[in-house]
Amino acid sequence: MTRYEVRLAATVRAPVAEVFEFFADHERFTTLFGSRGLRIREGELEPNGIGSVRRIGSGFSSFDETIVAFEPNRRIDYQVTRGSPIKNHLGQIQFGTDHGATKIDYLIRFDPKIPCTGKLLVLALQIMWRRNAPKLLKGLERA
């Protein structure tokens, strides 16, 4: 089966610590895709750090993501660990700075569980990001 990738990027005129905090907060992070999320397990060293689990959605259509790498102000990696129409998933979010702004480089890799649905899932993720992320990230910027 074909492996799919989605690359999302943004530049936010805000300190990296504030942008990272937004992405690290499970409930706020899920709003970037127009979803609702909830931390269901705290991490080993930090509430939203390595080992923490967020549940996205509710009921039958919910799925869980587990944080597998967490470097404050630099990187967050996570995997889908329950539910979802995808497998072999890895989301990697990297943060950098550029003249006082924060650069976000976000890569999602996955295999679809159902053949021929990969392109549709890529498109859905891109649409959800474009509909929600710019407005939310703009809210982090300073005048």
Task: Give the key terms.
42% strand; 3 helices; 143 residues
Q: What does the model show?
A:
With 143 residues, the protein is of the alpha+beta class. It has one domain (4-138): Alpha-D-Glucose-1,6-Bisphosphate, Chain A, domain 4. Helix content is 25%, strand content 42%. It has three helices and seven strands. The chain has helices at residues 16-24, 26-31, 118-138, and strands at 4-12, 37-41, 53-56, 63-71, 75-82, 86-98, 101-112. It has a seven-stranded antiparallel β-sheet. A hairpin with a 3-residue loop joins strand 5 and strand 6. The longest helix is centred in the C-terminal third of the chain and has 21 residues, at 118-138.
Short description:
The protein is an alpha+beta fold and 143 residues long. It is built from three helices and seven strands. Strands 1-7-6-5-4-3-2 form a seven-stranded antiparallel sheet.
SSE arrangement:
Blueprint: E1 4-12, H1 16-24, H2 26-31, E2 37-41, E3 53-56, E4 63-71, E5 75-82, E6 86-98, E7 101-112, H3 118-138
Antiparallel strand pairs: 1-7, 2-3, 3-4, 4-5, 5-6, 6-7
CATH class: Alpha Beta
Separation of the first and last Cα atoms: 47 Å
The count of domains is 1
Largest beta-sheet details: 7 strands, antiparallel
Strand order of the largest sheet: 1-7-6-5-4-3-2
Q: What share of residues are in beta strands?
A: 35-45%
Can you tell me the CATH topology? Alpha-D-Glucose-1,6-Bisphosphate, Chain A, domain 4
Question: In which range does the helix fraction lie?
Answer: 25-40%
Low-confidence stretches: none
